[in-house]
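Lab notebook: predicted structure, single chain.

Context: the supervisor wants predicted structures on file for every construct in the current expression panel, including those that have not yet been purified. This is the next one on the list. No modifications to the sequence; it matches the entry in the shared construct table.
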Amino acid sequence: MRILVTGGRGTLGQGIVQEFRNRGHDVFSVDIAHGSDEVGFSLRTDETKPYYARCDVGEYRQLERVFESFGPVDYVYHTAAEFGRWNGEDFYEQLWKTNVVGTKNIIRLQERLRFRLVHFSSSEVYGDWPDLMVETVMDEHEIKQMNDYAMTKWVNEMQVRNSAVQHGTETVVVRIFNTYGPGEHYSPYRSVNCRFMYCALKGIPWVVFRGYGRTSTYLADSVRTLANIADSFKPGETYNIGGDEYHSIESLSDLTLKVTGADARLVEYRDSEILTTRDKRVDVSKAVRDLGHRTTVSLEEGMRRTVAWMREFYRL
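Prediction complete. Output recorded below exactly as produced.
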């Protein structure tokens, strides 16, 4: 298969690229930064066979040029996005351009070139839903998205559905739940797991909001399941991709202290965080049934592996 991965330098994107290469597929990726294995569009490309191109998905011309250069593809894994609730508040211009305009650009090319699309949504679309998060909730209930990031991801799902109705495009939507692991580079906007571990290793205080619950998904487990979609593609399906170990944020912080050996006095506790979903209990039974999704790495073991990677990567 020939596969294009947008956001190929991101946490999930780079894992998916490597997974498909390990499976023997022809994979090309794009992201917004320059890279050593990059295509030179207007000058000689130094690499014999480049597998990467700089591209802003919010710019149609740049995307179109990538497809013209790489040629026909069977699948596009659209992971490129501005990620996270607070990132979406602080950089809302990039959020709406990349997530909404960028996805529309991908869909317009899909309508023309007829590739199959795997679109990456987010658990954030479940908003204020208080019960088990099953894929059908969004069709059966009116959900209040709680931040701009969530809104853009729900808009994306509507864009995908409308294109399927109007143009017969074939897309699978995946809703990602709190994925972490080696390769997730720290920033203040990354996953709560990443932030806790990085702060603990650096001796930086962190805040824990009481009364919130999540599942955590080890990166390699998510990547394996996501790659399986190309072998079990069901147009129009939506899948939750999440872990099977529900935990409180307090217990995640306690586990961080355990696996890093950090001082417990670094932790500050607060009672609530504004406009944030309190509980994310996920049903992944459909992904288990159709995609062979499974948890192979426990939360504690995954945290230990990630801490070991961080120590080496950041030379801590």
